Amino acid sequence: MSSDTGTRPRVMVLVASSRPGRLGPAVARWFVTASAAEDVAGSIDLADLAEIGLPMLDEPEHPAGGVYRHEHTRRWSERVAAADAFIVVTPEYNYGMPAVLKNALDYLYAEWAWKPVGFVSYGNTSAGTRSVQMAKQVVTTLRMVPIGATVALRITDTVHDGQVRADAAPAGAATAVLTELLHVAAALRPLRAPVATDAPVAELSLAPAATDDLAELLVLQRCCWVQEAIVNDTLDIPALHETFDDLRAWAVSWQVWTVRLHGRLVAAVRARAAGGVWEIGRLMVAPDLAGQGIGRWLLAYAESQAPRGTTSFALVTGSCSSRNIDLYQRTGYRITSPSTEANTIVLLTKDRPEPAPESSLQAAPSR
After folding, report:
1. Is the separation of the CB atoms in 14 and 51 below 8 Å?
2. Are 70 and 59 in contact (CB under 8 A)?
3. Which helix (H) or strand (E) holds 335?
4. Which residues pair with 153 in a beta bridge?
5. Cα distance between residue 216 and residue 70, in whole Å
6. Mapped to the 3 state alphabet, what secondary structure does 52-77 carry?
7. Under DSSP, is residue 180 helix (H, G, I), strand (E, B) or coil?
8. For 235, which DSSP code?
9. CATH, domain range 204-360
């Protein structure tokens, strides 16, 4: 995790009307401004279904299969998959949601799953709320999670000359919607992490660490290094004394990856480049899952992320941490700086293997 902005949720603000003269774009712009979304979220994707121009669903395969024949579907899939949360800006037509919204939802399946959705509706008598109720039935079928907070704008009370007035009450509601949306997006993020197919334990998911992981990471770190303190007969181990602010500081300069099992943070590792050396550290696995190959698998993954120009890998451990040293030596590391009376830490290094000749590499299959 090299920067904080990349870890904040990406929010798609979806304009769900294509009718000429619609208020949707103005309402969407008002929401982004009133809620300060551009300042709080990692990025805002203002997606206007009128501009996207999806035809009525024309894919021959079921969306759940993820096999798309048409380029417009593939573009829509990539855009939705990149979002972590959604705000749907919708009017109400005949007690229901616009057909273009239902059509856009029907095009995809997995791309919507485990992501929160909030609604900003507008209309006359009901302020668009019946459209929202209809849409909620559909999004829950797609495994989306509608939040409780909403914004409902009555046109005659809040719109003047085609623009939403900057009234305090609607602006406060917009902020509440975005706040709840981001909270739920953070809670659902572990469910969106892809399951690692090569992991030694089923259902493990591996992903870059995010700011929301740091509190759990701090707890896991302390649990894992208690045993190291015992076997090395010392409490002078940084991992046991670091604060949340310490973790937040080194998470900026290191790349950090976390592993979850059914939402629980169970392992992590960090790495960074120092010249031609790829330094690997804080390799940790929850004590109740130790001995199942997770550490070795995660170490191999960290090595695979080394940038071009890396010539060797390096890591350190306690001189009495025989289990760690055995793991590292079995994976090709050698002790290059043994411990002394003044230093109980050992340094282990491994040369990076030469890449395979280009002629022997096989191209990855196209998606």
Report:
1. no
2. yes
3. strand 334-337
4. 122
5. 42
6. HCCCCCCCCCCHHHCCCCCHHHHHHH
7. helix
8. -
9. 3.40.630.30
The residue to which tokens 């500081």 are assigned: 249
CA-based nearest residue to 201, from 282, 289, 326: 289
Nearest to 255 by CA among 243, 277, 272: 272
Parallel, antiparallel or unpaired: strands 255-261 and 204-208: antiparallel
Angle 178-184-190 (CA atoms, 0-180°, nearest 5)?
140
Residue 314 CA: distances (Å) to CA of 183, 295, 326, 352: 38, 16, 15, 10
pLDDT digits (tens, 9 = 90+) for 130-149: 999 999 999 999 999 999 99
Tokens read off for 342: 């003044």
HSE of 153, CA atoms in CB hemisphere, 13 A: 31
Cβ neighbors of 197 (< 8 A, separation 6 or more) are none
Tokens 């993954």 -> residue: 301
The closest of 116, 287, 257 to 194, measured between CA atoms, is 257
Beta strands in 286-339 (DSSP E): 312-318, 334-337
Helix (H, G, I), strand (E, B) or coil at 237: coil
Token digits for 232?
A: 């090395």
- For residue 121, which of 157, 150, 159, 148 has the smallest C-alpha distance? 150
The Cα–Cα gap between 9 and 192 comes to: 12
Predicted confidence (pLDDT) per residue in 257-280, tens digit: 999 998 899 999 999 999 999 999
Q: So where are the chain's domains?
A: 5-192, 204-360
- The number of beta carbons lying within 10 Å of the beta carbon of residue 342 is 5
Q: Which residue has the tokens 């989306």?
A: 144
Show the CA angle centred on residue 224, arms to residues 221 and 230, nearest 5°. 125
Given this model, what pLDDT does residue 330 score?
94
| Token pair listed for 174 | 């917009």
pLDDT band, residue 359 (cuts 50/70/90): very low
CA–CA separation, 3 and 303 (whole Å): 21
Q: Which fold would CATH assign to domain 5-192?
A: Rossmann fold (3.40.50)
**Token output for 231:** 């076997």
